[in-house]
Design brief:
By secondary structure, the chain is mostly helical. It folds into 2 domains: 189 residues, MFS general substrate transporter like domains (Growth Hormone, Chain: A), CATH 1.20.1250.20; 187 residues, Up-down Bundle (Growth Hormone, Chain: A). Helices cover 72% and strands 3% of the residues. InterPro entries: MFS, MFS_trans_sf.
C-alpha cells in the first residue's frame, strides 16, 4: 500500500492497525492479516452469515429426524428409508428450478415462499405420523419439502457478488462455506437425535422447521448484499456449458464417496465415529481457505482428488488390520481432511464455468449431483456390507474416489487449459 513506509507510525487497535498516510496525514485502518476476519468484515456479511447458518443447520437434521419419527411410529425402517429417498428424488427434480427462479427473480422474493412451502411439508409429515395417517401421505408430505432453497448456494452467490474480481477472497469465502457445511452436517444429526430422544419423536422435525424458516427470513432480510437479479434471457441450462457435465460427474462420484463411507462406517463401528470425518474436513477446509490457492484451478482439483483417493484407503487399511476403534477414528479424521479442499475447489470451478446470472442454478446442479451420488453410494455400500462384510465394503468409497479422479483427469484433458 502507498502509505506502508518504514517510518510510518503504527498503532495496534483490536487486532487491526492504524497507519498514517504520508500524503494526507490522515489515519487509515488496515485490517488484520487473518483472511476470515477480513472476510467477515465485509459490510453485511456477518448478518447474512448468521441467518444462513441457522437455516443450514436443519439440513443435517431433517432426514435423521424423519427416520427416527417414522420408524418409531410405524415400526419400519424400510418405510422410513423409502420416504426419505422419495424426498431426495423430489429435491433432485425441483431444486434446479427453484435455483433458476432465485437467479431470475431474486433471493428474497423466491427463497421465503419456497421455504414456507417446505416447512408446511415438514409440519404435514409430522401431523401425518402423529395421527397415524395412511402411508402414502408420508410420501406426499415429505416430497413437498423439495422446494427448500439451496441456502449454501445462495450464500456462495453473495460472496461471489461481493468479491468479484478478487480470487483470493473468493477462495477464502468458499472454504468458509464448506467448513460451515461440514459443521452443520456434523452437529445436525446429533442435535436431531438428542431432541427426538429427550423431548418427543417429532421434536427434531418441528424444531428443524422453525430454525429453517427463521434462518431464511433473517438471511433474506439482508437486501444490501443480495446479488442483482439476472436479466431475462433465453440462456439454456448451465449443463450446456463446456466442462460442466464432466464436473457434475465428479460431484456425483464424490457424493458416492460420502454416502458409502457413512453407511459402511455405521455398520462397522456405529454412527458417532463419523463426526471425526466431518470434523477433519471442517478443520481442513478452514486451513485450506487461509492458504493462497494455485492459479491453475483444474490442476488444483486434480491434486485434491488424488489426495482424497489416497486418503480414502486409510479406513480400509485400519479396519482390515486391527479391531481398534481408535485407529479407525484416526483414519477417518485423516480421510476427512481431503474432502473439504476437494469440495472448495470444485465449487470454485463451478462458479467460473457457470454463465453470469445463473450462479444459483449452477451450484444447485452440483449439489443435486452430490446428493445423487450420496444415494448411489449408500445403496452400493449397503449392498457390499450385506454381501461381503463391513471390512471389504470400505473398498467402495475408495473406488468412488478413484472414479472421481479419473473423470476429472479425462475431462481436463479434453478441455485443455482454457477457462
Amino acid at each position: 500500500m502507498p502509505y506502508d513506509t518504514p517510518t510510518a507510525p503504527l498503532l495496534a487497535v483490536s487486532g487491526d492497525m492504524l497507519v498514517i498516510a504520508p500524503r494526507t496525514g490522515a489515519p487509515v485502518r488496515r485490517t488484520s492479516t487473518n483472511p476470515y476476519r477480513r472476510l467477515l468484515a465485509t459490510p453485511g456479511a456477518r448478518a447474512f452469515t448468521v441467518g444462513n447458518l441457522i437455516a443450514r443447520l436443519p439440513m443435517g437434521m431433517f432426514s435423521v429426524s424423519a427416520v427416527i419419527m417414522i420408524a418409531g411410529s410405524r415400526g419400519s425402517y424400510a418405510l422410513a428409508g423409502a420416504v426419505t429417498a422419495t424426498g431426495l428424488a423430489a429435491t433432485a427434480v425441483v431444486a434446479p428450478w427453484t435455483a433458476r427462479f432465485v437467479d431470475r427473480y431474486g433471493q428474497a422474493r423466491i427463497a421465503v415462499p419456497a421455504t414456507a412451502i417446505a416447512v408446511l411439508g415438514s409440519l404435514a409429515l409430522l401431523l401425518c405420523v402423529h395421527y397415524d395417517a395412511p402411508d402414502w401421505t408420508l410420501f406426499a408430505a415429505y416430497a413437498a419439502t423439495a422446494t427448500t432453497p439451496n441456502t449454501g448456494g445462495m450464500s456462495r452467490a453473495r460472496w461471489a457478488h461481493l468479491h468479484r474480481g478478487d480470487p483470493a477472497a473468493l477462495h477464502t469465502a468458499n472454504s468458509f462455506e464448506q467448513a460451515a457445511d461440514e459443521l452443520c452436517f456434523m452437529l445436525g444429526p446429533a442435535l436431531a437425535a438428542f431432541l427426538c430422544a429427550a423431548l418427543f419423536p417429532e421434536a427434531g422435525t418441528l424444531i428443524g422447521a422453525v430454525l429453517l424458516m427463521t434462518g431464511v427470513l433473517i438471511f433474506a432480510a439482508q437486501r444490501a448484499t443480495e446479488p442483482p437479479v439476472a436479466p431475462v434471457t433465453r440462456a439454456g441450462s448451465p449443463l450446456r456449458t463446456r466442462g460442466m457435465p464432466a464436473l457434475l460427474a465428479v460431484f456425483l462420484a464424490t457424493g458416492a464417496v460420502f454416502g458409502a463411507m457413512e453407511v459402511v462406517t455405521i455398520a462397522h463401528a456405529g454412527g458417532a465415529i463419523l463426526a471425526l470425518q466431518a470434523g477433519g474436513s471442517c478443520v481442513a477446509g478452514l486451513l485450506y481457505g487461509s492458504l493462497r490457492p494455485a492459479v491453475d484451478i483444474r490442476r488444483r482439483l486434480l491434486w485434491c482428488l488424488a489426495g482424497m483417493a489416497a486418503l480414502m484407503s486409510l479406513p480400509l487399511l485400519a479396519a482390515s488390520s486391527t479391531d481398534s476403534l481408535l485407529v479407525l477414528a484416526g483414519s477417518l479424521l485423516l480421510a476427512g481432511a481431503a474432502t473439504a479442499p476437494t469440495m472448495v475447489t470444485g465449487m470454485t470451478l463451478v462458479q467460473r464455468l457457470t454463465p453470469e446470472g445463473q450462479l444459483n442454478e449452477g451450484m444447485t446442479l452440483s449439489v443435486t449431483a452430490l446428493l445423487g451420488g450420496i444415494a448411489a453410494g449408500s445403496a452400493t455400500g449397503g449392498w457390499m456390507v450385506e454381501h461381503a462384510g463391513t471390512v471389504t465394503a470400505y473398498v467402495v468409497p475408495g473406488c468412488a474416489a478413484g472414479l472421481a479422479l479419473a473423470v476429472a483427469a479425462a475431462g481436463i484433458r479434453v478441455r485443455g487449459n482454457g477457462a
